[in-house]
Amino acid sequence: MPRHVVGTLSELPPGSRRIVTVGGRSIGVFNIRGRFYALRNRCPHQGAPLCQGRIKGTTLPGRPYEYVYGRDEEIIQCPWHGWEFEIATGRTYFNPHRMRVKTYDVTVERGAAAEEDVTLETFEMTTEGDLVVLRA
Amino acid sequence: MAESVKRMPIIDCDVHNRFKDGKMTALWPYLPRAYQEDVREWGINLSGVGYLNGGDRGYRGDSWPKEGFPGSDLDLMREQLLDAFNVRYAILLGQELRPLGTLPNADYAAALAHAYNDHLIEQWLAAESRLRGAMLIATQDVPQAVKEIERIGRHPGIVEVLVANGARLPYGNRCYHPLFEICEAHGLPFALHTGSEGAGINGQPSVAGYGSYYVENRQVRPQGYMTHLTSLIFEGVFEKFPKLRVVFIEGGYAWLAPFLWRLDADWRGLRHQTPWVKRPPSEYVWEHVRFTSQPLEEPDQPADLLEVFKWNRAGRTLMFASDYAHWDFDSPTDAFPRLSEELQRRIFYETARELYGFPVAASAAEQTVTAD
User: Fold this and answer.
1) Which pTM was predicted?
2) Which structural domain range is residue A58 located in?
């Protein structure tokens, strides 16, 4: 998998996301409570820009008339038809085994920015130099 | 499918335009002062039932302009719909005032329809040559609605007369016949859009009243459309007004053929009770009634829809609609299973072109060639 620098760690604090185009594919990279995830920015349903959707929790399946809210920040909801996906796995909440969106590996490379060939057109360098790297 | 639709011009039969601020001030130039004062004090006062909706406050999450509401910004509508999908004609159906049939005050409702129609023509149709509009009428006072169609119905940008699924009586009822007479005379289809079921002065949304949840409310749409369609046929509307065309917007499509099988079967034994219904009910539908596609049914196997399309004579009865910018938007390139070139041309262009009388010169086939 080719390696793509998404940005420096300080540019992607917890709760943030960045949508990048890699090899003609639009991919959303998310920092959820300090962990990074990446999803294809195309809903498998009708092609909507999934990664622009709301990051949220959801109501957990339960007994009739019971509302329990949970999994805060673990779900992204497609901005068109409202399908909910687990950000960590790309699986839909309603049919995790059959319907999912592609995920990619994201890693943080400590102190790598200093050695990086600086073709980082838009990315500002930070002192600690940690890079968020997508493999896609 | 996706690529071939991208290459052809399409007609979108369900697009929602909104006022910029989501309020009524856009109507001030067109609304009598007395009503302005009422609206300032009391708000629009149109009834909903109180259900939730979907998406981001009812809209696609990516359709909110920097300022104002989805559907209020023409540039964004161009970018996300007209240009993105090569839309040759988009039919605007309005938004805030579509529930005006829920109002108890017939004169206020008629004034709102009048103001909206002028606003539509001056602020939208004049601004973009690809836009066409549905005029609103208030059915509370049919003679006033007839006058409104006489006043504005011949405007070249007005292509149909729009009412809501929610109503006080099924639309075939004789009290509405003057509307059909004037629609027929002006060559304007009479269109129903889902909404207002059980709201305001309208009847209950189902035979068992109100469901608890929004998802239940969405399922009363085909029930209402079945009621109106049956009424139109058995009250003899298509016999009285042989050139009338009726459009059912956003109320489902896959239900049609099985429903017509029932109607035809019942008609054989009960025909004598309504002897003016001279043909099997289905035949009136093939000739007089059109349906828009969104939200298209989604069978487990998408290709199963092709069977339904065959039953429903989709090449004749189905017209593409996106419902932009609502959250349940259907993408022209991703909502349908793979279609034959001919069926695609019919659904995405020709049937609507014929219905609304758009010029033949802009036919899909010709433009496909030039686009290539």
Assistant:
1) 0.93
2) 3-135
